[in-house]
């Protein structure tokens, strides 16, 4: 790695997957195979611009200790001449399959998209088998990418991000009895309200509910929802895969923060549905670390559950292995500002419960120092939670707001890494994710309220460090 400025070095993440150099985007091919979690990712190792993408590769036995492996796919052939784009993985007998999009730019500004197959016996070296689907169906453009495959009984299924010739986004369903040829079943989103292109679909069943995740580019904001230039989210309902009919509820976001895109999931041996997202957005290439030769990272893993008619997202219990010794505080009344002994740091997990009571607003500032702070604020009048990064430091700014929450109590579980914050609200009812680039030394944590509130059960842990080896990031508890 080239010599990095001290400031940028202080923003290297300690417990998130990030590229050793270059640009990282979508998580790809999440899978449990041969005793390990595998997380592949879109990687442009030579630059912090989007360009010729390979598949980077991490593996872990436990979602905590990660090993960087050699890139699984790099562009070599005509059918992938301009990048091995996003896709998915599938365990097939003793083998691991990757299905991905071969991106080809044709000199005239047009593109071609090939859905390609690669096979591995050891989960490390992949033999390419070439395209298994060479064109979109008639009525659809070459914006046709990001295959997600899964198996049900003897059938293989695949969802594809697609665009109609009228430039409307949708997700197409394919079926087969072999992963090497595919038949169109139909269009899962025939109501045309999903922008101009849907990227990165994922389909799975969650506690009896059928879920379709996708990223509808061009979908317009609605109130506080879909404020990001590139939204991502899900619909939930009942799908009939024989006919590609899907009766579902309205599209909603998975994350209320700023930097969350292209989420993908996998099923683990314990039956958990685990999600990773890209902690970034398309066309936001000017991050404060590009001059130092790296950009973006993935989110923490999240376990998805469908209960009480809604989606819940929680960090997996394994992440507790990253915790240092606990600093615990009991009940405090809160009126104005409060700092608690032992709560300081740039890389930590913080759990607390706040009863807003009479307060018109209350919350926590983290990464505070000098004029800088990142604010998590409950607004009692609207019963909403805001993530405010206007004073966070360098980089993109702004405020994001949750839908209305309960007013009685607010449970927060906050993960702060060197340049990110993830907030799990009310045991996973809402999540906010954002990159922040605070100045050096901004390490204070302050609780605040306007009016009388109560702070319950504060627990704080410094988080373990990652070691950076020549190969990339190694995180060890
Ligand atoms: C989403 C995306 C995918 C594509 C990949 C290319 O961020 O645009 O649709 O496959 O990134 O890196």
Question: How many domains, in number, for the residues?
Answer: 2
Number of separate helices? 1
> How far do the termini sit from each other?
24 Å
> What is the fourth-level CATH superfamily of the largest domain?
Glycosyl hydrolase domain, family 43
Residue share in helix: under 10%
Approximately how much beta-strand content do the residues carry?
Answer: over 45%
CATH architecture assignment of the largest domain: 5 Propeller
CATH class of the largest domain: Mainly Beta
Q: Gyration radius, to the nearest Å?
A: 22 Å
Q: Tell how many strands the DSSP assignment holds.
A: 35
Summarize the structure.
The protein is mainly beta. 1% of the residues lie in helices and 54% in strands. The mean pLDDT is 95.
Features:
477 residues, mainly beta, Tachylectin-2, Chain A, Jelly Rolls, eleven-stranded antiparallel beta sheet, five-stranded mixed beta sheet, 35 strands, globular
Q: How would you describe this protein?
A:
This protein is mostly beta strands and 477 residues long. The chain has two domains: 17-299, Glycosyl hydrolase domain, family 43 (Tachylectin-2, Chain A); 319-469, Jelly Rolls. 1% of the residues lie in helices and 54% in strands. The chain is built from one helix and 35 strands. It has one helix at 6-10; strands at 22-33, 36-44, 54-60, 67-73, 84-92, 95-106, 110-120, 127-133, 145-152, 155-163, 169-176, 183-187, 197-206, 209-217, 233-240, 245-248, 252-253, 261-267, 273-278, 294-295, 302-307, 310-314, 323-329, 332-338, 348-355, 361-369, 372-379, 384-388, 399-401, 410-417, 420-425, 430-435, 444-463, 466-469, 472-475. Strands 23, 24, 25, 26, 27, 28, 29, 30, 31, 32 and 33 form an eleven-stranded antiparallel beta sheet that branches. A five-stranded mixed beta sheet has the order 4-3-2-1-20, with no helix packed on it. Strands 13, 14, 15, 16 and 17 form a five-stranded antiparallel beta sheet that branches. The chain is globular and about 65 Å long. The site of beta-D-fructofuranose (FRU) has 14 residues, from strand 1, strand 5, strand 9, strand 13 and strand 18.
């Amino acid at each position: 790695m080239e010599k990095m400025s001290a400031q940028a070095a202080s923003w290297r993440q300690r417990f998130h997957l990030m590229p050793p150099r270059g640009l990282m985007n979508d998580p790809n091919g999440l899978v449990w195979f041969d005793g390990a979690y595998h997380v592949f990712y879109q990687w442009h190792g030579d630059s912090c611009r989007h360009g010729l993408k390979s598949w980077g590769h991490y593996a872990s036995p436990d979602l905590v200790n990660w090993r960087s492996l050699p890139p699984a796919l790099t562009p070599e052939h005509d059918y992938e001449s301009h990048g091995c784009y996003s896709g998915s993985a599938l365990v097939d007998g003793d083998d691991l399959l990757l299905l991905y999009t071969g991106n080809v730019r044709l000199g005239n500004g047009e593109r071609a998209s090939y859905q390609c197959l690669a096979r591995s016996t050891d989960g490390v070296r992949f033999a390419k088998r070439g395209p298994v689907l060479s064109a979109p169906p008639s009525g659809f453009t070459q914006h046709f990418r990001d295959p997600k495959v899964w198996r049900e009984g003897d059938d293989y299924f695949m969802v594809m991000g697609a665009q109609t010739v009228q430039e409307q986004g949708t997700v197409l369903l394919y079926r087969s009895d072999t992963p090497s040829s595919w038949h169109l079943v139909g269009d899962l989103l025939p109501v045309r309200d999903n922008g101009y292109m849907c990227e990165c679909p994922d389909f799975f069943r969650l506690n009896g509910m059928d879920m379709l995740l996708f990223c509808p580019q061009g979908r317009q904001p609605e109130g506080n929802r879909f404020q990001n230039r590139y939204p991502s989210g899900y619909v939930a309902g009942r799908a009939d895969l024989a006919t590609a009919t899907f009766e579902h509820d309205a599209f909603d976001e998975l994350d209320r923060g700023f930097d969350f895109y292209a989420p993908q999931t996998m099923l683990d041996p314990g039956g958990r549905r685990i999600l990773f997202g890209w902690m970034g957005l398309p066309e936001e290439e000017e991050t404060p670390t590009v001059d130092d030769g790296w950009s973006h990272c993935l989110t923490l893993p999240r376990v998805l559950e469908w209960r009480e008619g809604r989606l819940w997202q929680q960090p997996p219990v394994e992440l507790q292995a990253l915790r240092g010794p606990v600093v615990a505080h009991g009940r405090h009344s809160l009126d104005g500002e409060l700092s608690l002994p032992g709560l300081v740091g740039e890389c930590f997990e913080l759990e607390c419960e706040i009863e807003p009571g009479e307060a018109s607003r209350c919350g926590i500032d983290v990464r505070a120092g000098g004029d800088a702070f990142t604010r998590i604020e409950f607004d009692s009048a609207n019963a909403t939670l805001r993530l405010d990064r206007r004073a966070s430091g360098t980089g993109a700014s702004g405020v994001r707001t949750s839908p209305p929450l309960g007013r009685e109590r607010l449970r927060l579980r906050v993960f702060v890494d060197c340049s990110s914050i993830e907030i799990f609200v009310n045991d996973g009812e809402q999540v906010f994710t954002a990159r922040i680039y605070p100045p050096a030394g901004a390490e204070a944590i302050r609780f605040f309220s306007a009016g009388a509130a109560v702070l319950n059960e504060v627990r704080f842990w410094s988080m373990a460090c990652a070691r950076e080896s020549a190969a990339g990031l190694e995180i060890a508890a």
